[in-house]
Amino acid sequence: MSGNYTTVPYGYEPPAASRKGTLIFYDSFEHVTDEQLQHAAVTSDTRSFTQLVLYPLHENTVKRMSKDGVLPYYKREDRLHEWKRDHTEFRIKVEGLEGKRKKYTPMDSALRHLTAEYPAPHFLYLTSEMANLFASFDSFKDWITKLRLLIDGQPGTLHPKLEQYAHRWEWAE
Known about the structure:
Layout: E1 22-27, H1 34-46, E2 51-56, H2 59-66, H3 73-86, E3 92-94, H4 97-101, H5 107-117, E4 122-127, H6 128-135, H7 140-144, E5 148-152, H8 160-164, E6 169-171
Parallel strand pairs: 1-2, 1-4, 2-3, 4-5, 5-6
């Protein structure tokens, strides 16, 4: 405990936090444009989230999930850090769990880490391709009840499970 004491009037209650929750952008960030990152940051700010967490995927994770080739993890992470430095007006954090692990990280493990680390409620910001991929996993039914989705992209073909749980997600404006 620090030695700094403050006095407050009798009956003082601290003001309620005006910002709640975490917006998590889960993606490989290989094809995500600066405009999409800006859109996610603005969404985080207008919806009064505590912060925007950018979660870049390791290349082994991307390879297992979608068979796409991507740039090395450190290059994509450096791009996000550079973008973050240019946008200091937003509360943004680049999560480095996959960089520490340096191997495949299942989406369940990543989401467990993120939900334990950051304040609730949790909103997952996904591109439409990543949302369809997430809906194809067996654990989707468990996770969709614990968090909500914001999907960035054009309305198109959606996975049947996304249509089934349409009340738990919405299109990002």
